[in-house]
Amino acid sequence: MGRYIGPVCRLCRREGVKLMLKGDRCESAKCPMERQWRSSPPGMHSWRRSKGSNYGIRLREKQKVKRYYGLYEKQFKRYFERALHAHGNTGETLLHLLERRLDNVVWKLGFAPSHRSARAAIVHGHITVNGRKVDRPSFEVEQGYSIGVRDTETSKKYVMALLGDSPPPVQSWLERDDTKLEGRVIALPTRESVQIPVEEQLIVEMCSR
User: Fold this and answer.
1) Residue 9 exposed, middle or buried by CB count within 10 Å (0-12, 13-18, 19+)
2) pTM of the prediction?
């Protein structure tokens, strides 16, 4: 399976929104999206581009979600198939499934500065779920699950360096114990938990063709 190894800031510029791919840097003045001369889509003739077609608009919404959660096309299709056959609104169900990925929860708990760093921490065995080591970033958490840092000096130093003196706040469906380096899923995520602007209905329209 291939992986993207190019400049990630280019992805944010292409989608026209901050995808938080570089952690704290995305919140600083160094982010290209904060600079007027670099916040336009990449490419030599970006200023000449016309308004997108109906297909292009729907494609951009899909690509935005894929890049935010770090998914490949085959992975995204599997999530959409699950959402399609589930009860309720397909678009909201899709986002709920993606929000429950372990790498997303680790990032939102503040144990990693970005989705990419969260995936690396999980694959390298720094993260536990209900006391057991889990090395799959796509692991799906449930309400009541406990997500912690492995009880080793290396893992604790790694996460403590990321948390720093002022740990970031967590969303209402999560809680974090900074002394134990442990988080808990106290409720399932809602539509408001998604931190990027996305019109999920456009994704459903495109993928349902």
Assistant:
1) buried
2) 0.85
